[in-house]
Protein backbone atom coordinates (compact mmCIF):
# COMPACT_ATOMS: atom_id res chain seq x y z
CA UNK A 1 0.00 0.00 0.00
CA UNK A 2 2.13 2.89 -1.22
CA UNK A 3 0.73 6.35 -0.72
CA UNK A 4 2.05 9.30 -2.61
CA UNK A 5 1.38 12.75 -1.26
CA UNK A 6 1.29 15.63 -3.70
CA UNK A 7 1.93 19.15 -2.52
CA UNK A 8 0.83 22.10 -4.64
CA UNK A 9 3.45 24.81 -4.75
CA UNK A 10 2.63 28.43 -5.35
CA UNK A 11 4.25 31.07 -7.54
CA UNK A 12 4.71 28.87 -10.61
CA UNK A 13 6.92 26.23 -8.98
CA UNK A 14 6.41 22.82 -10.50
CA UNK A 15 4.73 20.11 -8.41
CA UNK A 16 6.99 17.82 -6.44
CA UNK A 17 6.07 14.31 -5.38
CA UNK A 18 6.74 13.02 -1.89
CA UNK A 19 6.04 9.60 -0.55
CA UNK A 20 4.19 9.24 2.72
CA UNK A 21 5.02 5.58 2.98
CA UNK A 22 7.17 4.46 5.86
CA UNK A 23 8.67 1.08 5.13
CA UNK A 24 11.25 -0.89 7.07
CA UNK A 25 14.09 -2.16 4.89
CA UNK A 26 14.39 -5.89 4.42
CA UNK A 27 17.90 -7.05 3.63
CA UNK A 28 18.90 -10.22 1.87
CA UNK A 29 22.08 -11.46 3.54
CA UNK A 30 25.14 -11.95 1.37
CA UNK A 31 27.36 -15.00 1.58
CA UNK A 32 30.19 -13.00 3.18
CA UNK A 33 30.37 -12.01 6.85
CA UNK A 34 31.56 -8.39 7.08
CA UNK A 35 34.39 -7.46 9.43
CA UNK A 36 33.09 -6.05 12.72
CA UNK A 37 34.61 -2.64 11.88
CA UNK A 38 32.41 -2.47 8.77
CA UNK A 39 29.27 -2.36 10.94
CA UNK A 40 29.69 1.22 12.12
CA UNK A 41 31.50 4.51 11.57
CA UNK A 42 32.62 6.32 14.69
CA UNK A 43 34.63 9.10 13.04
CA UNK A 44 32.54 12.02 14.34
CA UNK A 45 32.17 10.38 17.76
CA UNK A 46 35.94 9.93 18.06
CA UNK A 47 36.61 13.58 17.18
CA UNK A 48 34.05 14.79 19.72
CA UNK A 49 35.33 12.43 22.40
CA UNK A 50 38.87 13.69 21.88
CA UNK A 51 37.72 17.32 22.20
CA UNK A 52 35.71 16.50 25.33
CA UNK A 53 38.57 14.61 26.98
CA UNK A 54 40.96 17.51 26.27
CA UNK A 55 38.54 20.12 27.61
CA UNK A 56 38.72 21.84 30.99
CA UNK A 57 35.32 20.51 32.04
CA UNK A 58 34.64 18.53 35.20
CA UNK A 59 34.78 14.73 35.03
CA UNK A 60 30.98 14.56 35.42
CA UNK A 61 30.49 16.94 32.50
CA UNK A 62 32.98 15.02 30.38
CA UNK A 63 31.30 11.71 31.16
CA UNK A 64 27.88 13.11 30.24
CA UNK A 65 29.12 14.63 26.97
CA UNK A 66 30.94 11.44 26.00
CA UNK A 67 27.72 9.48 26.53
CA UNK A 68 25.83 12.03 24.43
CA UNK A 69 28.47 11.87 21.69
CA UNK A 70 27.72 8.18 21.12
CA UNK A 71 24.62 9.21 19.16
CA UNK A 72 26.99 10.28 16.40
CA UNK A 73 28.09 6.71 15.79
CA UNK A 74 26.61 5.72 12.41
CA UNK A 75 25.46 2.14 11.97
CA UNK A 76 25.53 0.35 8.60
CA UNK A 77 22.38 -1.75 8.89
CA UNK A 78 22.94 -3.63 5.66
CA UNK A 79 26.31 -4.86 6.94
CA UNK A 80 24.78 -5.52 10.35
CA UNK A 81 22.17 -7.76 8.70
CA UNK A 82 24.92 -9.64 6.86
CA UNK A 83 26.92 -10.00 10.05
CA UNK A 84 23.83 -11.21 11.94
CA UNK A 85 23.21 -13.93 9.36
CA UNK A 86 26.66 -15.39 10.07
CA UNK A 87 26.86 -14.70 13.83
CA UNK A 88 26.58 -17.11 16.75
CA UNK A 89 23.16 -17.61 18.37
CA UNK A 90 24.35 -15.64 21.41
CA UNK A 91 25.43 -12.67 19.25
CA UNK A 92 22.17 -12.86 17.27
CA UNK A 93 20.13 -12.80 20.48
CA UNK A 94 21.98 -9.74 21.78
CA UNK A 95 21.69 -7.99 18.40
CA UNK A 96 17.92 -8.57 18.49
CA UNK A 97 17.67 -7.33 22.10
CA UNK A 98 19.59 -4.19 21.04
CA UNK A 99 17.16 -3.70 18.11
CA UNK A 100 20.02 -3.78 15.62
CA UNK A 101 17.88 -6.30 13.76
CA UNK A 102 14.20 -7.13 14.21
CA UNK A 103 13.45 -10.74 13.36
CA UNK A 104 10.51 -11.36 15.66
CA UNK A 105 7.99 -8.53 15.49
CA UNK A 106 6.17 -9.76 18.60
CA UNK A 107 9.43 -9.75 20.58
CA UNK A 108 10.12 -6.21 19.36
CA UNK A 109 6.72 -5.17 20.72
CA UNK A 110 7.46 -6.86 24.07
CA UNK A 111 10.81 -5.06 24.30
CA UNK A 112 9.09 -1.72 23.64
CA UNK A 113 10.66 -0.93 20.26
CA UNK A 114 7.34 -0.78 18.43
CA UNK A 115 5.59 1.71 20.72
CA UNK A 116 7.18 4.73 19.05
CA UNK A 117 6.31 3.33 15.62
CA UNK A 118 2.67 3.03 16.66
CA UNK A 119 2.65 6.62 17.93
CA UNK A 120 4.16 7.86 14.67
CA UNK A 121 1.68 5.81 12.63
CA UNK A 122 -1.28 7.18 14.62
CA UNK A 123 -0.06 10.75 14.20
CA UNK A 124 0.46 10.18 10.48
CA UNK A 125 -3.05 8.74 10.06
CA UNK A 126 -4.50 11.62 12.06
CA UNK A 127 -2.83 14.19 9.78
CA UNK A 128 -3.48 12.46 6.44
CA UNK A 129 -6.70 10.47 7.02
CA UNK A 130 -8.71 12.66 4.64
CA UNK A 131 -6.42 11.94 1.68
Report on the structure:
The structure is a single chain. The chain is mostly helical. 47% of the residues lie in helices and 9% in strands. It is built from six helices and four strands. A hairpin with an 8-residue loop joins strand 1 and strand 2. Helix 1 runs antiparallel to helix 2. The longest helix is centred in the last third of the chain and has 14 residues. The N terminus is likely disordered.
> Topology as H/E string?
EEEHHEHHHH
Question: Which percent bin holds the helix content?
Answer: 40-55%
Mean pLDDT: 79
By secondary-structure content and strand pairing, the structural class works out as mainly alpha
Total strand segments = 4
From the alpha carbons, calculate the radius of gyration and give it in angstroms: 20 Å
- List unreliable stretches of 5+ residues: 1-9
Which outline best applies?
extended
Number of helices: 6
The order of strands across the largest sheet is 1-2
**Largest β sheet strand count, sense and barrel closure:** 2 strands, antiparallel
Measure the end-to-end span.
14 Å
Bin the strand percentage.
5-15%
Key features?
disordered N terminus, 9% strand, two-stranded antiparallel ribbon, 131 residues
Map the helices and strands.
Elements: E1 4-7, E2 16-19, E3 40-41, H1 43-53, H2 59-69, E4 74-75, H3 77-86, H4 89-97, H5 105-110, H6 115-128
Antiparallel strand pairs: 1-2, 3-4
Helix pairs in contact: 1-2
Amino acid sequence: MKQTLLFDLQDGEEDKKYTGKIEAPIYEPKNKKPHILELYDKTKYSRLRNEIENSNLSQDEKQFLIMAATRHIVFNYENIADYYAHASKEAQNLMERSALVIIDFQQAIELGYIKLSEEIKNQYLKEYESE
